[in-house]
Structures are given as C-alpha cells and as structure tokens.
Design a protein that fits this description.
The protein is an alpha+beta fold. The protein is built from 9 helices and 4 strands, in the order βαβααααααββαα. It has one domain: Glutaredoxin, CATH 3.40.30. Helices cover 46% and strands 10% of the residues. It is globular.
C-alpha cells in the first residue's frame, strides 16, 4: 500500500478541487492518505513567491479558471464573498481536532466546504463559531498546541520542497496542483516513465538567470 501526504491550505481553490477529486483519482488503488494543513502564505514566502490572487492580472483568471474546473469536473464550487482572506482561523481550527498535525478527511471536507460552497464570507465570526461547534475540537483553535502543529506542518512541508498547495508527497516524490492528480495516479499505477530520465534528469541542467539590471 502506498502512502500519500496531502498538503493543503483552505484558502486555495485548487486544493479544494483536488481534495474533492482525490477519491476519483485514487479509485481502484490501495493507498492511505494523511491530510496536513499548512500556511500557504509562509510556503510562498519561503520560496519568494506571490499567490495567484496577489497578482492583479492573474487574480481574475485564477477565479474564472477554478470555477470552470468545478463546472468541467462536476465539483460544486462558489467563490467566497471575500478572497483572498486570512485562513489562519480555519487552519488552526482544523488542527485543534488533531494531536499530530494530521486531520481526518471529514474535518478537511467540512472546512473546505465551509469556505468554497455557498459564496458566503469564509471568515465571518458567526459562521466560524458554527463551524467550531460542528467540528467539536479537542482544544481551543488559538491554543499554543494548535499554533505549534501548524508551524510544524508548514516547516516540514518547506523542508520537503513543497512550494504550493495542493501538494502530494509519496515515496519521496512531490506532485503539485489539481492537474497533478493525473500524474500522481500514473505514478501510483506503475507507469515506467517515472523510472526513466525524464523524471530523474528534467532539472539537471543549468538555468539561465537574468540580472535585474538587464
């Protein structure tokens, strides 16, 4: 049986879409999955990146793209009333149900659907209170324990080379993005391509680095 670590942040529509599509992507395969919330903003900062919604020209395309992907794949999705928003409350709440940084699929599903269905304000205090009551966490979301789990998950993800969400780690290999699910399935089904040079040597070449002065 293969084991997959699924790194996610509830702020990411691509992570939501991948989460919903994962059972279909793994259909017929023997796999276990751990869902690990991370702070996408910290991951992006570690790699010197901006999120798609932080780039004005890319923001509109991203939102239209994820809504199209939902339509294309039959996944219910609606943009929250405000986006981007601060996902810390959702991440810490999910992890307040955990002792080791992993959350159940039910917890992840409940939080994802709170954010990405209905078109409401994700961070509305009344909705967060209702979500907290629904999840019945083991401790307060703002506790040191919940904060520490999020920090540890995020640091572990960065150390592993995760540069965005959703990311899937299996057998020391990383796969990224909603469209990466097809590639993940191919690997899990034993596609020989992954044993060849196109995987192993794709990044083994010098990069042309342009000077900021040019």
């Amino acid at each position: 049986m293969k084991h997959i670590d699924f790194y996610l942040d509830f702020i990411s529509p691509y992570a939501y879409l991948a989460f919903e599509q994962l059972p279909q992507a793994l259909e017929g395969l023997s796999c276990s999955v751990d869902y690990r919330p991370v702070l996408l903003g910290a991951v992006l900062k570690a790699h010197g990146q901006l999120g798609p919604a932080e780039i004005p020209a890319k923001r509109g395309w991203t939102y239209r793209h994820v809504l199209w992907l939902g339509h294309q794949h039959g996944i219910e999705i609606a943009m929250p009333a405000s986006h981007p928003y601060n996902p810390l409350a959702h991440l810490r709440l999910a992890l307040s149900t955990s002792d080791d940084g992993r959350v159940s699929r039910l917890v992840a599903e409940t939080v994802f659907r709170h954010v990405w269905r209905g078109g409401l304000e994700a961070a509305d205090p009344a909705r967060l209170a209702a979500l907290t009551a629904q999840l019945q966490p083991r401790r307060d979301a703002g506790s040191d324990g919940s904060k520490a789990l999020l920090q540890r998950n995020t640091a572990d993800a960065i150390a592993l080379g995760v540069f965005g969400t959703p990311a899937y780690a299996v057998d020391g290999r990383l796969f990224w993005g909603f469209d990466g699910l097809a590639m993940l399935r191919a690997y899990l089904t034993g596609d020989a391509w992954f044993d060849g040079p196109q995987w192993a040597e794709a990044d083994q070449r010098p990069a042309l680095l342009r000077s900021s002065k040019n």
